Amino acid sequence: MRIWFGAFLAGLIIVVGTACGTGGPAKGGNTSNGRQLFTSGAGNGPSCASCHALADANAKGTVGPNLDDAFAAAKANGFKKSTIQNVVLDQIRYPTKGSGMPANVVKGQDAQDVAAYVASAVGKKPPGPPSGQATGKGLYASLGCQSCHSLDGTRSTGPTFKGLFGSQAKLTNGQTVTADEAYLLESILDPDKQIVQGFQPGVMSGVIKKGQVSEGDAKKLVDFIKQQK
């Protein structure tokens, strides 16, 4: 998968049909139950609202990302609700390392319901930074890059962003390239143009279509990748 930026929504590799983790893709989901679980939690566990802001749930948590803002760019770029649902479900199962969020804070069908609710509810207010104004770090989160591209060197579905900029990558055609600004930008804008050995074509592009990310946002993502040393 071309050294890309993780499918800006990948790692979660949400190719409809497979999730990045081993729990399987999102299926259905009861949004009414999901909203209740989001605001009140399950059993003795914490509620999502205690950490996350979400206008539809009148949630004002500040520990974790504001979910309306986090998915603003994804919605602006035309991502389907089902894709966002898969991203949320993947993050429930496999939270970003070091985020402080416990894995599987809700499980099974409850997790499906929460993911379905969040996907249906995000963006029901003027978004935080819309596409074109979001930061590279914000785009990394809102587009789900963290699901496939770690920041700590851990290998996942896609290459880690740690130390990626300036590194050498061998492509499936035998060519060796440098992951410079031009290469990374092209990898984001046209994910399947060049494939790095050890990764498969069609993974990132199953989520991020060629040209779906604006050049301006792609450049912000490249700048963010450059900072991951």
Taking pLDDT < 50 over at least 5 consecutive residues as the criterion, the unreliable ranges are: 1-20
Sequence of secondary-structure elements: HEEHHHHHEEHH
Gross morphology: elongated
* Rg calculated over all Cα atoms: 17 Å
Look at the structure and name the CATH superfamily of the domain at 150-226. Answer: Cytochrome c-like domain
What is the mean pLDDT?
Answer: 80
Percentage beta strand: under 5%
Key terms:
two-stranded antiparallel ribbon; mainly alpha; 8 helices; 229 residues; disordered N terminus; elongated; 4% strand
Topology:
Elements: H1 31-40, E1 53-54, E2 59-60, H2 67-70, H3 72-76, H4 81-93, H5 108-121, H6 136-142, E3 168-170, E4 176-178, H7 181-189, H8 215-226
Antiparallel strand pairs: 1-2, 3-4
Helix pairs in contact: 1-5, 4-5, 6-8, 7-8
